[in-house]
Amino acid sequence: MALTRKGAARRRSRNNALERPEYGWIWKPLLALLVIYLVVCLGLGIWWSRTPASFDVEQAVVEQRGASSGSTAARGAVTTAALMTLVETLLEKPGGYLRNDLAPPGLWLDNMPAWELGVLSQARRLARSLPAMEQTSAPQLQTVKARLMTDSRDWLYPGTEKHLAQALDGLKDYLDSLGEGGDAAFGNQGQGLTAWLEAITGSLDELGRRLTASIGSRDELRDLNIDTEALPARTPWYRVDDVFFESRGQAWALMHLLEAVRRDQADVLASAGVSKRWEQLVAELQSSQRRLWSPLVLNGSGFGIFANHSLVLANYLVRARDLARQITTSLGEVTAVSAPTTSESPGSKAQPSENASEQPPIDTGDGSASAKGENAGQGAAGGEASAGKGDTPVETAGQGSGDSASEPNATSPSSPN
């Protein structure tokens, strides 16, 4: 009987093992896969957060014109090619365009998306000014402006990448027209240049305010010529890196665009006597792109152990703002004198320029677009832009890091993780 019971017990044990196998071993390979996934995401995040290198604007013309680079192009080719390269950089840098990512590792990053917003902001600003710089009607420029002004966080088809690619195609068509010996070309009197510089001055002033808003002691701002009463609310500590990297993105894009415009409008700048100051302006922006050795954007004070990276960057941008303001004033005086006077027929009225009255849609970062006018006199000669206004994308301090409160109405941010 004992043997029979032992045999029955063995049979039941075998049956139980077959019917209810133990899966306790499965968690080990699953855990290993999870660790590998996290390590890969971390590595990609670090790689994707590296700021792209600067480029030579003359070489950009050769690359963008391709087979046509051997022929002479009209005034404006260097600026157009530089703008094309900025848009290409957003699409083709490591990781591609990250601002609208819905999956890791792009979803976890905030510094590079903020940098992208900064570059896109300056690309939009120039795209809005190009029709005023062009001496003829160029329908491609209207297409470019419309595509760049879409929501930077669009991910549902057509996503932001699609809109950027369409803007790139429009710029390519316009660049080709500049080299065909037609009427397409920038005006030889610097048309539209002053208005663009005024917008730049306002954006640099706004960036300076946002950067200095992270500083606890207002006494540290006395050498920056910043009205502390007009500063926005203090930036939360978790948003400091976002504002820093958005500002770096705008400065990175702006230094290339200014260098390109200098090549296209060299005679205009020389006649206004601002060539030297223009070079100084570009040099200030280049200095703002020095390598950040710290893995974190620090917000120290005075002569303490830690640096204050926001304050250092604000110094460069405020000096650039002052130079841009001086250049705008000088150019405005020259263009006002050299502008051709035309007789008006009785009863005729001067038509306002397209850029002066236009209210382009503003990317609010939440999928909606609003309209906001850009005051032509704001910034350069009209004083300093108030915080949160102007066409500079600004992200409100209360929003999360990837969430630019408004790309021309909010405050955005970021840094390599």
UniProtKB/TrEMBL annotation:
The annotated regions of Polar residues compositional bias extend over 337-358, 402-417
Q: Which domain of life is it from?
A: Bacteria
List where the protein spans the membrane.
30-48
- Which parts of the sequence are annotated with region: Disordered? 337-417
Answer yes or no on keyword Metal-binding.
Answer: no
Tell me the keywords, alphabetical order. Membrane, Transmembrane, Transmembrane helix
Name the InterPro entries on file: UCP029693
- Low complexity bias spans: 371-390
* The name this protein goes by in its record: DUF2333 family protein
